[in-house]
Amino acid sequence: xxxxxxxxxxxxxxxxxxxxxxxxxxxxxxxxxxxxxxxxxxxxxxxxxxxxxxxxxxxxxxxxxxxxxxxxxxxxxxxxxxxxxxxxxxxxxxxxxxxxxxxxxxxxxxxxxxxxxx
Length: 118
Description:
Blueprint: H1 2-17, H2 21-32, H3 44-78, H4 84-87
Helix pairs in contact: 1-2, 1-3
């Protein structure tokens, strides 16, 4: 993907700015890496191409970082994984904590009644 992007940038600079292959390579590599063009652009077509190419290279950078970071983030999120049993309980305070069980109440002690002596 990087090679195809670099070749597309070289072709654009060679076409719009009439640069040599070496100058086209330098400018395309600098924009693709996020640095900016080395030589000033002379034509409006070259400026438009450089802007579109810079936006494209930013999207490619974000896509590549997503591909690199996805397995790492997936591994980190597995650390917070709940078991299936805990996930079925309603949440309290947004933490997936199972509800407290109702305590069995002991019957109240029977009151002793004193029979009135007559």
